[in-house]
Amino acid sequence: MEPSRLGHYLGRPRERVPGNPYGTVEHPSEDVEDGCPGGWRMTPLVWGVLRHARRRTRDGGRVSNPFFDRLTDDVLISAVLYFEAQEDAALAHWEHEVAEEARRRMKVR
């Protein structure tokens, strides 16, 4: 999953700018008091973890990544596993939202 999509899950409100979950330059979707909006996903630490993350399959499995398979650093292994768990949670949340929207549309018709 692209980190920019994951950032809209991670415990933040669904939308801060009505009708635009991605926000604008003038009104970012993340609270600037939390730091630079979107900046967390552009740090060297995040890209270092993402390099080792395993790609998710459609059925929820993970494709082997040689960078992850060779890891011996427990902290980095934990960070990758945490990212993968958050990615799974974000996808489940997104799928739930899509299903709820489909149910709402069915009731209207």
Task: Please give a structural write-up.
- This protein has 109 residues and is mainly α.
- The chain has one domain.
- The N and C termini lie far apart (33 Å).
- The relative contact order is 0.13.
- About 6% of the residues have low confidence.
Using brief descriptors, characterize the structure shown.
109 residues; mainly alpha; 4 helices; flat
Helix percent reads: 40-55%
Major sheet details: none
List how many beta strands DSSP finds.
Answer: 0
Structural category: mainly alpha
Low-confidence stretches at least 5 residues in length (pLDDT < 50)? 13-18
Tally of individual domains: 1
Order of helices and strands: HHHH
Strand content: under 5%
Short synopsis of the structure:
The chain is mainly α. It is 48% helix and 0% strand.
Per-chain topology:
Blueprint lengths: L2 H4 L37 H9 L13 H4 L4 H35 L1
